[in-house]
């Protein structure tokens, strides 16, 4: 019986700037590549996009909305479903005895 497969080493991801609202997070060979951007024409909407290696396209995986006077909210799977539901950030980050 062969020995069990070794665990792959962890990825070291690097932030390209010191701003979490406008940055790129990637590994050396760009196998994992994320872009986090808040455009000036949508100052309350931050998009998280991932590079699809197969198609070489940036795919929106999540959006975070922070409008003045409202609770922050986010949604996932935006690229596959433009009508994906918004979730209150407080609900998404909810603490339970089992997890954060």
Evaluate the radius of gyration: 17 Å
Helix content: under 10%
Q: What is the overall silhouette?
A: globular
- Largest sheet: number of strands, sense, barrel closure: 7 strands, antiparallel
Mean pLDDT: 82
Enumerate the strands of the largest sheet in spatial order, edge to edge or round the barrel.
1-2-3-4-5-6-7
* CA(first)-CA(last) distance: 40 Å
Name the beta content range: 35-45%
Task: Note the topology.
Elements: E1 14-15, E2 23-26, E3 33-38, E4 45-52, E5 57-65, E6 73-76, E7 87-88, H1 89-92
Antiparallel strand pairs: 1-2, 2-3, 3-4, 4-5, 5-6, 6-7
Task: Describe, in plain words, how this protein is organized in 3D.
A seven-stranded antiparallel sheet has the order 1-2-3-4-5-6-7. 4% of the residues are buried. It is 4% helix and 35% strand. It has one helix and seven strands. The chain is mainly β. A hairpin with a 7-residue loop joins strand 1 and strand 2 (23-26).
Short descriptors:
100 residues, mainly beta, 1 helix, 35% strand
Please outline what is shown here.
With 100 residues, this protein is mainly β.
């Amino acid at each position: 019986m062969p020995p069990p497969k070794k665990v792959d080493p962890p990825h070291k991801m690097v932030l390209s700037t010191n701003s979490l609202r406008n940055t790129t997070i990637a590994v050396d060979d760009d196998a994992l590549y994320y872009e986090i951007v808040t455009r000036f024409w949508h100052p309350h909407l931050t998009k998280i996009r991932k590079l699809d290696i197969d198609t070489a396209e940036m795919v929106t995986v999540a959006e975070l909305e922070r409008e003045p006077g409202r609770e922050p909210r986010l949604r996932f799977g935006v690229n596959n479903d433009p009508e994906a539901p918004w979730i209150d950030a407080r609900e998404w980050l909810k603490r339970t005895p089992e997890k954060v």
